[in-house]
Structure formats: C-alpha cells, structure tokens
Amino acid sequence: xxxxxxxxxxxxxxxxxxxxxxxxxxxxxxxxxxxxxxxxxxxxxxxxxxxxxxxxxxxxxxxxxxxxxxxxxxxxxxxxxxxxxxxxxxxxxxxxxxxxxxxxxxxxxxxxxxxxxxxxxxxxxxxxxxxxxxxxxxxxxxxxxxxxxxxxxxxxxxxxxxxxxxxxxxxxxxxxxxxxxxxxxxxxxxxxxxxxxxxxxxxxxxxxxxxxxxxxxxxxxxxxxxxxxxxxxxxxxxxxxxxxxxxxxxxxxxxxxxxxxxxxxxxxxxxxxxxxxxxxxxxxxxxxxxxxxxxxxxxxxxxxxxxxxxxxxxxxxxxxxxxxxxxxxxxxxxxxxxxxxxxxxxxxxxxxxx
Length: 354
Ligand SMILES: [Zn+2]
Fold this sequence. Notes:
By secondary structure, the chain is mainly alpha-helical.
C-alpha cells in the first residue's frame, strides 16, 4: 500500500468498531472562545460589541453548519444523516476525515487545527492580495503564510496567542478583510463537512469503488459536497446562516491551501506525496470548476471571480518566493528537519486505506 497520508485533504478511515471511542472523543481541545473574543475586541473594538460577537458565535459554529449540511442531504439526496457526529478536537492534523464503521454513529473529524489555520490563512492571503504593493504588508503576510504552512500545517502546532496577535495587528481595523475571510471560511467548512458526510452517504447507498480507481470516491464526494454548498448559497438563508454568493470559489481556495502545504513540504523537507493512483488537487479543482458551470447553479459570480483572481496571484507569489528563498539559503532558520522526519516516521505506523 502506498502512503496515503496528507495526499488529500480528506481520509476515509475504516477500522474495527472498538476504535469508535477513540474517534469519537480522541484529541484534546485548546479552543478558548473567550480569548478569541478578547483578541477580536481589541483589534476591532470600533465595529463590534461583545454581545454582537457572542450572538454571531452562537449562530455561526461547526455544529450548526453540520446541521444545515444534514438538512440539505435530506432535501437533495433523501439521505437521513442523523447518525453522524462531530469531533472537533485537536489531533495535530489539518486533514479532516470520517470514521464510519457502519454500526456506531459515524464521526466526522474537523480538527481545531484546521479551523484556526483556515481562518488565519484566509485573513493573511486576502490582506496580502489587497495591499500587494505595500512592502511591509507584503512581507508580513508572506511570513505569516509561511509560518502557517511550516509550523502549523506541516508540523501540527497550533498558532499561539502571540501569533494570533501578530496576525490581527496586520489586519487591524480592516473590516473588509475580516468579512471576506470569515465568509469564505464558512463556505470552506461547509464544503469539508459536506464532503465527509458524502462519504457516509455513498457507503449508505452501497456505492462500491475499486482499488484501481480510489480517486473516484473523492471526486464523487467533492461533487456532492459542492452541490450542497451551492444550494445553500442559492437558498440565501438556512437556519439563520448565510453563505455569501461571492464565496462560491472558496472550495477552490481550500484545495489551493492543501496544495500550498504539500508544495512547502516538498521544498522545505523534500517530502513527496504524489503518485499515479491518487487524484492530484489540480484534478479535483478542475472537476469543481466543471460542476459550478452547470446551468442549474444560478449565481452572481463576478465578485467571487474577482476575489479568486486576487487570491490566485498571491498563491503563485507564495510559491515563487518560497522556492527562491530556499535556493538562496534564506529558509534554513525555519527548517525543523529532525521533527519533520519523526512525524513522517510516526505516520508510517498508522493504517490508512485507499
Ligand atoms: Zn474524502
């Protein structure tokens, strides 16, 4: 079996039923809503009151988003997904997965690490894109994205309060960037939740995939997930939650995010993931583009296209800068090769199935 870990932003874990408890409650939790709110209030105090932030968090959270995704599985596919639970604890991985032994309730895992990384990633990328010509912003945003890739995503370390502060200082008072990042963030999370639930749905309808074409299941799950996301967007409001039309390409950014992580891993640590049997992120992305082109999705795409163009520019810029800096020996300081090797070694022991 080839190493599957980190090849896709999703893994399907098949395991013996006794593992259920581990998957249900494995990991630790670092989340501190109060701290998050205090930070936000410091930097955006002109715009929000504490009550507003609290009300917002009560509406926009992972549990609610999963509930909406389940509503849409029922509506669009006739699939009753009540038997799916959420594990949001910190397991040092940005990869989400679903654990489904088909006896116990299935568990969708979206790591706290992915949650906090995704928000920070979008903030830094959008700010960078917006103020591209400002050298200071450019430099700070590049370094922050590099930190998110290396320390956080590859090495699995949650951003500390210091890092959070640094980021919020960079975007302080830029309400537009905050709004863009938050809106795209929820579309990304809705997509990844729907993708995982789609695996349970595909198992439920008895869809079988051959070992020769393991990528087919990923494509199918993506297609269903994107359909669900686009439907939520088009319906304008579900359970009080709105996914903004201009975020319709956020799932592409999600693919690009993983592409940047793997790219960084290759440049910094010579880690190679790709092989013939697994669908590259590029392929998955082009499939998503083909889906959204269908007539059934009626959306105002102008703003979304504009946002994605800007995102794409910094995505390319990041790659160019990283390989250049590595070649010039400027990244030696941030390399933690020994730690990376230990992580790779640890992952080898884990069972992953195609
Ligand atoms: Zn998947």
